[in-house]
Write a structure and sequence with these properties.
Elements: E1 9-13, H1 17-27, E2 32-34, H2 37-41, H3 44-51, H4 58-75, E3 80-84, H5 93-104, E4 110-115, H6 118-129, E5 134-139, H7 142-151, E6 160-164, H8 166-170, H9 176-187, E7 194-198, H10 204-213, E8 217-220, H11 222-230, H12 268-282
Parallel strand pairs: 1-2, 1-8, 2-3, 3-4, 4-5, 5-6, 6-7, 7-8
């Protein structure tokens, strides 16, 4: 069951409904699940097909993704399921919105994942105007988070997530949890319509660190949730400080109500992440 002192929502990061079932059995609860093209590529059914030397047609792959998402949604109907559009650096806002609109119709509890690019933010702004929910992904800077806040002001709490990828910052010897802390601090001056979803959680240390600083949501692979269960689903101790590793990311004084287009949203890890997701998706196509 859910620990009484747990305020953070716990999501599973996986494109495999079998892992959804396992996480539910393991924890006794699950607040949501995040998916992306790379996780779809890791789905056991997909891997078996590729190992046989077979690939998907585009519509066939989209239908497979839809089936996965619908199965996950049926297992956690009260939770959120994030579904990601295909996007590379050349994908227009119109194309992202077209995909997002279609994906949002797949299930009743979808959040559509858009990248934090100019086109992605434009698509998100228009999606919210049409009554959709969004998850802005591949966040690596506070400026990107400020832009997300500005572009999504039509949303209310529950409509908008932002996903800072802490593990990829730690790969560069930067303190990824500093970014989460900075975003949470900056959003205190706002209306709480954006929830911070800590992503790219690689280990229990990252998980406990995100709990400690009060991330609204944490999405983790099944292995990390298993480790948490082994530790009794405990909250981090008051003295827990071991997350403070890597180069410190300083806080920036930013004004949330500026035009989102005025913020610097460029970051090489966002570009790299887009390329990786696109490559993993395209690798499945014949």
């Amino acid at each position: 069951m859910r620990p009484d002192d747990l305020k953070t929502k716990i999501f599973l990061d996986s494109g495999n409904p079998m892992e959804t079932r396992e996480a539910l059995a393991l924890l006794g609860f699950l607040d949501g699940q995040t998916t992306n093209p790379s996780l779809v590529a890791k789905n056991p059914q997909v891997k078996r097909k590729i190992e046989r030397g077979e690939k998907f047609g585009l519509e066939e792959l989209k239908d497979f993704y839809k089936e996965i998402v619908r199965e996950i949604s049926s297992l956690i109907p009260a939770g959120s399921v994030s579904v990601e559009v295909y996007a590379d650096r050349n994908t227009s806002a119109e194309e992202m919105l077209r995909q997002g609109t279609e994906m949002f119709s797949w299930i009743p509890n979808a959040h559509i994942k858009y990248p934090i690019t100019s086109a992605g933010l434009d698509a998100a702004e228009r999606s919210l105007a049409e009554g959709m929910r969004v998850n802005m992904t591949l966040c690596f800077t506070q400026q990107q988070a400020a832009a997300v806040y500005g572009a999504t002001q039509a949303g209310k709490k529950g409509d908008v997530y932002i996903s800072p990828f802490i593990g990829r910052l730690y790969d560069r010897k930067e303190n990824g949890l500093d970014l989460v802390k900075n975003i949470l601090r900056m959003y205190q001056d706002g209306d709480n319509h954006v929830e911070v979803l800590c992503a790219s959680v690689r280990n229990l240390e990252h998980f406990f660190g995100a709990l400690k600083i009060g991330s609204d949501i944490i999405t983790s692979p099944l292995a990390v949730l298993k480790d948490w269960r082994t530790n009794g689903k405990k909250m981090p101790e008051e003295k827990f400080m071991s997350y403070a590793r890597g180069t410190k990311i300083p806080y920036e004084e930013l004004h949330l109500h500026h035009d989102w287009r005025k913020f610097n949203i460029i970051h090489e890890l966002t570009d790299t992440g887009l390329e990786k997701f696109a490559a993993d998706w395209n690798s499945l196509l014949r």
